[in-house]
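# nightly structure sweep
# worker-07 picked up a monomer target from the shared queue
# config: single-sequence mode, recycle default, output format = structure tokens
# input follows
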Amino acid sequence: MEPKTSTLSPQTAEAEKNKFVVSALNGTGLYVLAYYLVWALHESVKVLASRHFHLRGLWNPSRVVYTLSDNEWWRTAVVTVYGIGPLACLVLGLVVFRWYWRSERASRGQRKLLLLWIAFHACNAVFGALLADTFTHSGSWYVFDWLFRMGNVVNVVMALLAGLVQLSLGYFGAIAFLQAHDSKTVMRYSNRQKMVVSTLAAPWLAGSLFIMLLKMPYLTIQEALHLAMMALLLIPMGLACMNEVFSDTVKRPQATRMAWGIIGLAVVLAVVWRLALSPPIAFS
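# output follows
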């Protein structure tokens, strides 16, 4: 049986609306902050591997671009430099999610939600990115193309499997996401649609738009597709949240208020990323 709903007074309704607006803004800050933390790891280990193999390239705000001709590449270098970033993100995602599940989900505050967004971005940097890169024949697509040498059919199958994994992880991650919220108002089952919009859809759309704007004019189709592939994780998660009647939260939840520290840190990190990599950094 679904929980009963009740009519709210105008003052209560306005206060409730403000909580969802605050949740959306905080969620956007967490989304952006987690994105830059994950991709800083992804790109930095890629550049380090490239320097190890003495590969020439440029690191710009959107991606790492190589200035080598096709005949200067060899199999080990390709598999390593295009595979080490997703591998590092996979390890990060597993470690962070384990940290969240074992130690943080019953805690108060925003840290547990930040850990989850890091895990989500790490997941997308592996599975979503592979599907996106297969469309553009770039990035992690090179790993399977050079590793197996079995043609585009196998590459497409691997990409589709990665997409299915991301969809499945999104669906089964709904309970973990629900447990990451403190607010009793946000967690109330009668507000579940508002919750999904304010804590999943709004952070993804607003955060992705902010990230893309900060990367102009270096933004590529590949990078835009990476951000779009988060939908494969968040849409099934949102649908599962809508169907899940779980509405418990911590015993002494914190009041819903603006997390200015997180929002400010996200903006600063995004600006520093843009300024540090514009003009692009050359390596060899």
